[in-house]
Amino acid sequence: MKCPYCAFDESNVLESRDALEGKATRRRRVCVKCDKRFTTYERVENIEIKVVKKDGRVEEYQRAKLERCFEKACWKLSAEERGKLIDQIEMKLLNYESVEVPSKEIGRLVMETLKHVDQMAYVRFATVYMDIKNIGEFKKIINNLKI
Questions:
Q1: Residue 112 lies in a domain
Q2: What is the DSSP secondary structure assignment for residue 131, as one 8-state letter?
């Protein structure tokens, strides 16, 4: 690990602990050359997820798109609560049988999640995601909520 002060590439770890709710490791280090201390964070890189669009194009998965989607649909939930829901969806995506996930499957996972968390958010998302054009289609969405 390069020292941010003198750029020497050797340091010793003084202390390690979990950070970011167990998603990273925080390491307190000391440079062997200049003796200054600094902190690093070690995170596991997510497996690459590719999204297969309706027209067949393949894109890199972008968490930011899901964040925007959840922000619009679940504006009453805190950013932390929305983040936890997105984390749950990402775990399902990481366990998907292929690295390439159809966008349809991501939409289905979002709808499944919203249906059990916030029914109004489910309706808001479904009307956009399913491109609802008339009252009959809207009624079908409402009827899907009845369990």
A1: yes
A2: T
Please report the pLDDT score of residue 67 as a whole number: 92
The structure tokens listed for 112 are 């499944």
The answer to whether residue 2 is domain-embedded is no
Range of the domain at 126: 50-145
Q: Do 64 and 17 fall into the same domain? A: no
Residue 122 lies in a domain: yes
Output the 3-class SS for 37-86: EEEEEEECCCCCCEEECCCCCEEECCHHHHHHHHHHHCCCCCHHHHHHHH
Contact call for residues 31 and 38 (beta carbons, < 8 A) = yes
Pairing label, strands 50-52, 100-102: parallel
Identify residue 18 by its one-letter amino acid code: D
Express each pLDDT in 32-79 by its tens digit: 999 999 999 887 666 688 999 999 999 999 989 999 999 988 888 888
What whole-number distance in Å separates Cα of residue 111 and Cα of residue 133? Answer: 18
- Whether 57 and 38 map to the same domain: the answer is no
Contact 47, 97 (CB under 8 A): no
Nearest to 36 by CA among 80, 6, 66: 6
